[in-house]
Write a structure and sequence with these properties.
By secondary structure, the chain is of the alpha/beta class. It has 10 helices and 13 strands. The chain starts with a strand and ends in a 6-residue tail after the last strand.
Length: 331
């Protein structure tokens, strides 16, 4: 019997309509377009409409995937969501999406790994395909970052945006799909990028409800230094582990955190820029959403058999890389 691998057979993304440009941010904090562009590569980011929840992103993503694949949500076995901005502390956003989209036969859960959330969730989803438990698993990476940002904090509000995407995993016996993954974590980095208040370590109280600790905190230089090293290292590691040269790689799909981090990773892999998916200028850092958003935007350029490396680094610290062979050429 041929080995079963988990192949991506459909992809879809979603971003809200509202754009927050660098010019808009100049009115909120002490910054300017040149400063933001030179340090991040971001020109604008999308912001969710009032009342729009993360599960609403998920509904659009699931519906788009099912329409492309020609299936009903009732055919889905699982929906796994990588996110740090779910609708509630509980129930999981996966649970809510299943209900909203009519996936009556599916179950699932959320994965919290910050910007590495999509990779962690994708590796989790592949296990259910490979062991035969499930036939159709949707993996979503999405975040509603505007819900946890302080728009008077220049260090964070210029970076993050709202949006996300997802993929459908199905069994494959022809050698396509996810080939290998390397996932890592170092919890000692949690102090440098976190939302301090709101969990059991420091619950919300009347005294701390409106303090800066309620929102995302980032120590930029420390995060940048660790991201450059670890994202580049793990991408090179997965190439070496699978005997891949730069010529073998069709695409690098990096987490869109910062253009300088993306460039450093590509250089370490020996890749020219025309092999790197970049859309940070349009969407900013959507945390767990950046990698599937890239796959969605580049879908019509992907060909069956393409060797693709996905790489990310996120708060925690968390990081990793996944190597896959693309399973279809888009019509």
């Amino acid at each position: 019997m041929s080995k079963i691998t988990a192949s991506i057979t459909s992809v879809h993304g979603y971003v809200p309509e509202k754009r927050l440009t660098n010019a808009d941010l100049e009115k909120l904090v002490d910054t300017n377009d040149e400063w933001i562009l030179s340090r991040t590569g971001i020109k604008e980011r999308r912001i969710a409409a009032k009342g729009e929840a993360l599960s609403d992103f998920g509904v659009k993503i699931v519906e788009g995937i099912c329409k492309k694949r020609g299936i009903s949500p009732e055919e889905l076995d699982m929906i796994i969501v990588g996110t740090i901005t779910g609708d509630y502390r509980f129930p999981s956003t996966s649970n809510v999406i299943c209900d909203k989209v009519g996936a009556k036969n599916a179950w699932g859960y959320d994965v919290s790994a910050a910007c590495s959330g999509f990779l962690y969730a994708l590796d989790s989803g592949k296990q259910y395909i490979e062991n035969g438990t499930c036939k159709k698993v949707i993996v979503i990476g999405a975040d509603h970052m505007s819900s946890i940002l302080n728009y008077s904090d220049r260090a964070t509000c210029i970076i993050f945006g709202d949006g996300g995407g997802g993929v459908l995993l199905e069994p494959d016996t022809d050698g396509y799909g996810i080939q290998d993954s390397i996932l890592k974590a170092d919890g000692s980095g949690r102090h440098y990028l976190l939302q301090a208040i709101g969990g059991s370590a420091e619950p919300v109280t009347k005294e701390n409800a409106c303090t800066p600790e309620m929102y995302v905190h980032q120590e930029g230089q420390t995060v940048f230094k660790n991201a450059v090293k670890n994202m580049a290292d793990v991408s090179a590691e997965i190439m070496e582990k699978n005997n891949l040269s730069s010529d073998d790689i069709t695409w690098l799909v990096p987490h869109q955190a910062n253009l300088r981090i993306i460039d450093a990773t590509a250089r370490r892999m020996g890749l020219e820029k025309d092999k790197v998916m970049i859309n940070i200028q349009k969407f900013g850092n959507t945390t767990a959403g950046t990698i599937p958003l890239c796959l969605w935007e580049w879908e019509d350029k992907l060909k069956k058999g393409d060797n693709i490396v996905l790489a990310a680094f996120g708060g925690g610290f968390t990081w990793g890389a996944i190597y896959l062979k693309w399973a279809y050429t888009a019509k």
